[in-house]
């Protein structure tokens, strides 16, 4: 795999050179000017000119764009390429190709997700220090719906800087002032003399041009691409079955590995009963215990490795969690809702006053949500080789090349090998949803590679390992209370959630230093609960961390995935108590939030809110602000007499700020909604004897085409900078469905999933409300 | 030894009668389009055409299909590279997200349209039981109807 940048790309250590494109460029927008963020100076490599860390132009006119975020189906490579192409002034066609960079340059750092702000808005000494630290690592995670937010400026600046270099080279070539030149469709034009030069003919000269100090970005009125749907760059290959996902990596002399991990998290290998027998299976060359915690089988093919692994007889150590059950875990959540030591996230006004006896009508309800697996279609995998010279090289559909690098070092270290360097290749990615921010499979593969030095080892987990032995979204319970005033609107809103903190759990597995801070007050437990856009005069939001033996990790929309279900169901309950229409009620609550109100009104109009529905059918609405976007959805459901529930249609309005690629945003809303329908109706991970019960798609089912809702998406025009799109789509779905079930049946469902899945034939299921289920 | 036709070419494979067709395709024939998603005939990512029938290849032993003609996603386009009507509809509707499930959907739809050129929504529901975790369902339905219409026009 050719490297994009020469050694010269590693300018981080030689950053004193200064004056490079990005430092100069970002100075112009007031961001990062004080942080060493150098990409390479322009240089020529063969018949291409690398103009900066993001853009290379080939002599034949091809443009190669480095997109430093993982393409996992969200279409980010297309969106980032559009931003470059907009400013570079090239057509969006098949002369553009997009790669994930191999080099981990500071300039590729993701600031938006960890700092929770747009990098161009991050000012002050604390932000400077944080950016400096993140850039030193550098953190390039694809997470938190942050990719477009974080690269909205840098990608356009990279395109504008490259265009400037090409135009400057063109001016010299033509012997005319720069100001007399224009560009279009990949050409530099001199109108007066009717001469044009293709970019490809200017590459060598352009590479020598100093990057501009302050590239001028196009005004929105001049955009040709931003806001106009462009076809995804990865789809022509995907309909031919061509892309190389991590699972498809094939290298010369490669070994394959399968794995078995302890059913109870925290348990280790007590005894490997039949190592010799498994070792003697066809094709098997190694049976290895990894870190005392799992057993891998290495063979000449994955089929052989997995077949042999199925014969493994492993005795696992006993742990304190051996007797844990879902019921016990749920009881611990409910107990935590009554603890006298909650973390106080927010306390505005005098909440208790609202609840004094006789002061008002009180609405109170308790809700729950289960543990969840990610179940990405591409099973977990990584391929690692430790070369003869000690350098390591890895291929993985990772969301984090940094964690991947750490994972290789840790895994090799477990085999007492210290790689001299680690080169990470981010492959095509078959779905991630937060799961591939973990480095578990990378550690394991690197350990095996260190045992088989000089040979690549590809480790892939079976689906059963993926669902039952992985990382989970926390379960959660919440109690919400509101005191309604004479107008029926809440005087006081009091929300309390109990769940297992995500950040500390994830950090303990994935960061080589520290433990990720306190679990108390974990923001991923709290997000979505404060309903800040609603005008509640008095508001209190509290949380409780409830530890368990379960490993908790990032999961598409994290706390929003349960808190918005809790809070938006609860607001519906308040509306019902007040005898108000759910949309009218929310309109009143959004009186000080015009952006949200516009989205609410849009989705209500789209769904024909208020039009009568036949018996057994109902509409429900929910709204949330998440990842700097505002999203509202109306679900239409049918509940049959026997309790079968079908989500017929979901309407979605979103204000995602400026939309880069509308069709990709629509796809993310559709995908988030379908993901959310599965979650709301079907998904639960249950625990018995400390272990996950579910193991594959027969007992962790997915919504199939049958009964899949029709989805209608509309984007509300906005001139705010782009917000996130990958996660907001899933956020309101569960509450909208629960509210619709209430409208259809009068029944208020407060526990996820809302239904049980009944099998009605091979690969055919239906969802039946719990109380109707057999 | 088992003889097959795979994407139009004859192949002979010996000593692997018990191996699932999916792994023969992926590991012995280098056809990486069919994917492993579950191994238990649930997800459909591994679907291939076996004598024209859409079949989960993860649970079909090679020895059980001697003499069969197998088509994988790599075999859907014409020899000159032109996309099949189903693939073209998939592109026109911008269906795939991550794409990992899509080879199986493309195969299942190809088989459906061969049997049922203008399927109703109910017939689509009945025939297409694959799983897509990314949630491309709405576009898949649109693309099936688009492909059916394109096929009808010749
Ligand atoms: S891998 Fe064959 S159906 Fe899932
Ligand atoms: S496109 Fe990702 S699983 Fe279907």
Description:
The complex is a heterodimer of chains A (774) and B (154). By secondary structure, chain A is α+β, with helices and mostly antiparallel strands. Chain A is built from 21 helices and 30 strands. Chain A has 3 domains: 228 residues, Aldehyde oxidase/xanthine dehydrogenase, molybdopterin binding domain (Aldehyde Oxidoreductase, domain 4), CATH 3.30.365.10; 155 residues, Aldehyde Oxidoreductase, domain 4; 348 residues, Aldehyde Oxidoreductase, domain 4 (2-Layer Sandwich), CATH 3.30.365. In chain A, strand 24 and strand 25 form a beta hairpin. The longest helix of chain A has 28 residues. Chain A is globular and about 85 Å long. With 154 residues, chain B is of the alpha+beta class. In chain B, a hairpin with a 2-residue loop joins strand 1 and strand 2. Chain B folds into 2 domains: 74 residues, Beta-grasp domain (Ubiquitin-like (UB roll), Roll); 69 residues, [2Fe-2S]-binding domain (DNA polymerase, domain 1, Orthogonal Bundle). Helices cover 34% and strands 14% of the residues of chain B. The interface between A and B is large, with 61 and 56 residues. The complex binds FE2/S2 (inorganic) cluster (2 copies). Chain B: This is (2Fe-2S)-binding protein. Chain B: It comes from Plastoroseomonas hellenica.
């Amino acid at each position: 795999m050719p490297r994009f940048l020469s050694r010269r790309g590693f300018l981080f250590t030689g950053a004193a050179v200064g004056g490079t494109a990005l430092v100069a460029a970002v100075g112009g927008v007031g961001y990062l000017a004080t942080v060493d963020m150098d990409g390479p100076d322009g240089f020529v490599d063969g018949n291409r000119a690398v103009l900066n860390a993001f853009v290379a132009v080939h002599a034949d006119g091809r443009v190669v764009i480095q997109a430093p975020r993982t393409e996992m189906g969200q279409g980010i490579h297309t969106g980032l390429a559009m931003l470059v192409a907009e400013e570079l002034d090239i057509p969006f066609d098949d002369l553009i190709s997009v790669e994930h960079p191999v080099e981990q340059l500071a300039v590729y750092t993701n600031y938006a997700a960890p700092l929770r702000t747009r990098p161009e808005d991050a000012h002050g000494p604390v932000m400077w220090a944080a950016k400096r630290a993140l850039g030193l690592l550098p953190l390039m995670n694809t997470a938190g719906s942050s990719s477009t937010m974080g690269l909205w400026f840098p990608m356009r600046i990279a395109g504008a800087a490259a265009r400037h270099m090409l135009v400057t080279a063109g001016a010299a070539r033509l012997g005319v002032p720069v100001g007399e030149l224009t560009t279009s469709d990949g050409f530099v034009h001199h109108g007066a003399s009717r001469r044009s030069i293709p970019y490809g003919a200017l590459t060598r000269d352009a590479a020598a041009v100093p990057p501009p100090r302050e590239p001028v970005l196009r005004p929105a009125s001049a955009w040709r691409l931003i806001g106009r749907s462009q076809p995804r760059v990865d789809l022509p290959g995907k309909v031919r079955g061509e892309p190389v996902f991590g699972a498809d990596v094939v290298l010369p002399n490669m070994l394959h590995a399968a794995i078995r991990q302890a059913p109870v998290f925290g348990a280790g290998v007590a005894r490997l009963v039949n190592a010799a027998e498994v070792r003697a299976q066809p094709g098997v060359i190694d049976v290895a215990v990894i870190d005392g915690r799992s057993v891998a089988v290495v063979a000449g093919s994955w089929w052989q490795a997995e077949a042999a692994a199925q014969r493994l007889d492993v005795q696992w150590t006993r742990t304190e969690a051996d007797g844990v059950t879902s019921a016990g875990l749920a009881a611990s959540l409910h107990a935590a809702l009554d603890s006298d030591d909650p973390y106080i996230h927010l306390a505005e006004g005098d909440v208790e006053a609202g609840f004094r006896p006789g002061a008002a009508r009180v609405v109170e309800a308790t809700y729950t949500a289960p543990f969840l697996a990610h179940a990405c279609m591409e099973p977990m995998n990584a391929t690692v080789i430790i070369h003869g010279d000690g350098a390591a090289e890895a291929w993985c559909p990772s969301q984090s090349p940094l964690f991947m690098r750490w994972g290789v070092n840790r895994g090799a270290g477990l085999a007492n090998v210290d790689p001299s360097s680690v080169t990470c290749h981010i492959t095509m990615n078959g779905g991630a949803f937060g799961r591939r921010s973990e480095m578990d499979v990378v550690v394991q593969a690197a350990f095996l590679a260190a045992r088989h030095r000089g040979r690549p080892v590809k480790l892939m987990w079976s689906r059963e390992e993926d669902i039952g032995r992985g990382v989970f979204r926390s379960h959660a319970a919440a109690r919400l209370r509101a005191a309604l005033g004479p107008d029926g609107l809440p005087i006081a809103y009091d929300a309390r959630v109990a769940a297992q903190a995500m950040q500390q759990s994830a950090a303990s597995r994935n960061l080589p230093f520290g433990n990720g801070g306190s679990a108390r007050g974990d923001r991923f437990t709290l997000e979505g609960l404060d309903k800040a856009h609603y005008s509640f005069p008095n508001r209190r939001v509290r949380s409780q961390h409830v530890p368990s033996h379960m490993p908790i990790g990032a999961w598409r929309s994290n706390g929003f995935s349960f808190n918005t279900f809790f809070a938006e169901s609860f607001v519906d309950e308040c509306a019902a108590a007040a005898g108000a229409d759910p949309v009218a009620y929310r309109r009143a609550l959004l009186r000080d939030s015009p952006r949200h109100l516009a989205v609410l009104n849009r989705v209500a109009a789209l769904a024909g809110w208020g039009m009568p529905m036949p018996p057994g059918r109902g509409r429900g609405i929910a709204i949330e602000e998440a990842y700097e976007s505002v999203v509202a959805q109306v679900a239409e459901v049918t509940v049959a007499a026997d309790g079968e529930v079908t989500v017929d249609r979901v309407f979605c309005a979103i204000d995602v700020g400026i939309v880069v690629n509308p069709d990709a945003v629509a796809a993310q809303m559709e995908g988030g909604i379908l993901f959310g329908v599965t979650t709301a109706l079907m998904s639960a991970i249950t625990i018995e004897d400390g272990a996950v019960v579910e193991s594959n798609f027969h007992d962790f089912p997915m919504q199939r085409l049958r009964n899949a809702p029709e989805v209608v998406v509309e984007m509300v025009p906005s001139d705010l900078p782009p917000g996130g799109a990958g996660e907001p789509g899933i956020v309101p779905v569960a509450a909208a469905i629960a509210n619709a079930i209430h409208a259809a049946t009068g029944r208020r469902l407060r526990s996820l999933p809302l239904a049980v899945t009944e099998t009605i034939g091979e690969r055919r299921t239906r969802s039946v409300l719990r109380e109707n289920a057999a | 030894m088992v003889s097959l036709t795979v994407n139009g070419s004859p192949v002979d494979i010996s000593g692997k009668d018990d191996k699932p067709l999916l792994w023969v395709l992926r590991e012995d024939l280098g056809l990486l389009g069919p994917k492993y998603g579950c191994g238990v005939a649930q997800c459909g990512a591994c679907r291939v055409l076996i004598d024209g029938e859409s079949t989960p290849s993860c649970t079909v032993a090679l020895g059980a299909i001697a003499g069969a003609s197998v088509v994988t996603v790599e075999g859907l386009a014409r020899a000159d590279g032109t996309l099949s009507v189903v693939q073209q509809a998939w592109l026109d509707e911008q269906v795939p997200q991550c794409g990992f499930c899509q080879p199986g959907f493309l195969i299942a739809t190809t088989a459906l349209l061969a049997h049922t050129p203008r399927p109703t929504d109910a017939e689509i529901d009945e025939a297409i039981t694959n799983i897509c975790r990314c949630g491309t369902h709405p576009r898949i339905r649109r693309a099936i109807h688009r492909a059916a219409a394109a096929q009808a026009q010749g």
